[in-house]
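Thread: Newbie trying to understand structure tokens

Hi all, I'm a second-year student working on a class project, and my supervisor (Dr. K.) asked me to get a predicted structure for one chain before our next meeting. I've only ever worked with sequences, so writing a 3D structure as a token string is new to me. If someone could post the tokens and maybe explain what I'm looking at, I'd be very grateful. Here's the chain:
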Amino acid sequence: MFKKYLNLILAILLINLSLTTFALGETTAEKEAKFAEKVKTQIIKLGTGKESKVEVKLKDGTKLKGYVSQVNENSFIVTDEKTGTSTEVSYPQAKQVKGNNLSTGVKVTIALVVVFGLAILWGAAHN
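---
Reply by user tm_fold:
Sure, no problem. This is what the structure looks like when written as tokens:
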């Protein structure tokens, strides 16, 4: 009797697990689309111009280094500072993107942290 209940419970758990995995699982195309949208968001945040330095690794193994000179709906353009060569990259082509443009918000945050730190040090020195 115990074995029947145990088998029934295990069968129900197995079915539940398989249905949950099926319902929650993303296809490769969905994952790639989400990643491409994330890359697009990062590039838009980074902005354009010579201060928008970026390093991009493409899915084919190519590495690009330079600055974002243009942002489009389906792609962005990386311009190499040394050679002046521009390469158009579609968002799905990108495997990894690293950028280092300090936006105004980041600069303000850093300034506030510095001011706050100095105020703490000044308060500690005068106690």
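A couple of things are worth pointing out once you decode it. The chain has a mean pLDDT of 80. The chain is about 50% helix and 25% strand. Feel free to ask follow-ups in this thread.
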